[in-house]
Amino acid sequence: MTYRSLFRLFSSDLAIDLGTANTLVYVAGKGIVVNEPSIVAVNRSTGEIVGCGAEAKEMLGRTPANVIAIRPLRDGVIADFKMAERMLNYFIQKAHKRKSMVHPRIVIGVPSETTEVEKRAVLDSTYRAKASEVHLVEQAMVAALGAGLPVTEPSGNMVVDIGGGTTDIAVISLSGIVYSRSLRVAGNQMDDAIMNYIKRKYNLLIGERTAENVKMEIGSAYPLEKPVTLEVKGRDLIYGLPKAVTVKDEEIRDAVSECVAAIVSAIRGALERTPPELSADISERGIILTGGGSLLRNLDERIRTETGMPVLMADQPLASVVLGTGKMLENFKLLRKMSLN
User: Fold this and answer.
1) Measured between alpha carbons, how far is 173 from 156 in angstroms, rounded to an integer?
2) Cα separation of 314 and 71, whole Å?
3) How confident is the model at residue 5 (pLDDT cuts 50, 70, 90)?
4) How many CA atoms lie within 13 A of 82 on its CB side?
5) Structural contact between residues 167 and 287, judged by C-beta atoms closer than 8 angstroms
6) What is the pLDDT of residue 4?
7) Of 203, 223, 226, 298, which is least surrounded by CB within 10 A?
8) Which CATH superfamily is domain 3-141+320-338 in?
9) CA dihedral sign of residues 28, 34, 37, 39
10) Domain 154-185+257-313, what architecture?
11) Is 120 helix (H, G, I), strand (E, B) or coil?
12) pLDDT tens for residues 25-58?
C-alpha cells in the first residue's frame, strides 16, 4: 500500500454538498456516507435539537407546539446561521462515526452568484463545526465534474444543476467557467407553486411534504404520453375538516409552468452568451442535467424542444455535486485552481 492510499485510508477529509433540500457528505476513499434532508427539529423552550436530517423530515408539519422543524438553508444560502452550524456539526460527526477529536479539511460547493457575505456565512459555520480548513467551489463546476464531463479539456461543456433552492447553469472549458448564472428558482419553488395552486383551486391546504410528493408522482414539464391522476389529502379551508381531491397531471404542469419557463429561459440566455466555438461543442455533446429538480418528468424533452440542443441526464443526478466535490478532495492541484477563497 502506497503512502497516498494509506493517507487516504486514515484521512478525515470531507466533501459536502450543502443543499437547500438535502445535505450529502463524501469521505475521501469511502464515498458518500451521509445523504439526509437539510432539516433540524428544535425544542423551542430548551433550544435543544430533537432531530436532524431524515429524523427531522419525518417531523415536518407533525410537531407539537414546543417543537419546530427548521430548514437552515433558503435558496441555496444559509438563512439560519446557528442552526446551519449545528446541522453541519451533526453531519460531520455522523460521517466520522461520532469521533469528536476529528478536525477535517472540508470542500463545499456554493451557488455561482453567492455574495461575499453569503460565502462568509458558509465558511464561518463550517469552521465553527470544527473544520481545520475550508475550501469553497462553484456548484455548477463540481456538478459537471461529478457528471463525468471533461472539464479540463479545451472544449465546451454545459451543465444545468437544478437543486432544491437554486438552478446553476454554467458553460465550462479548460477548468474554468466561461459563463455562469444562478437562478433562485428550483425544486422548492415548484413545491410552493403546487401548494398555492391547490389552495387557490380547491380551497385545500396541503403541507410541503405532500406538495413534494405530488410533484414527484405526477409533476411534468411537458405533456405525458398517458394522463395520470393522484388523490391529494389536506385540510378544507372553508370547513376546516380533512378533505381529499383528485388532481390531474395537466393541473400540476400548469402549477409549475412558471418555474419551468424561468429555467428554460435562463438556459437559452446562457446559450446566447456562449462563444461560437464552444456553442459548436455543446450542440455536439449536449446539455447535461443534474440535481434533484432535473428529475421532473419530461423536463429534458421540454429543454430539447425549446433550445434545439441534445439534452442528457447525468448518471447520478442527485449525487453529481458531492461526487465532483469529492474528486476535488483527491486532486488538490485542481482544487487550488478552482477554489473561490
Assistant:
1) 5
2) 27
3) very low
4) 6
5) no
6) 46
7) 226
8) ATPase, nucleotide binding domain (3.30.420.40)
9) negative
10) 2-Layer Sandwich (3.30)
11) helix
12) 998 888 899 999 999 999 888 888 888 998 888 8
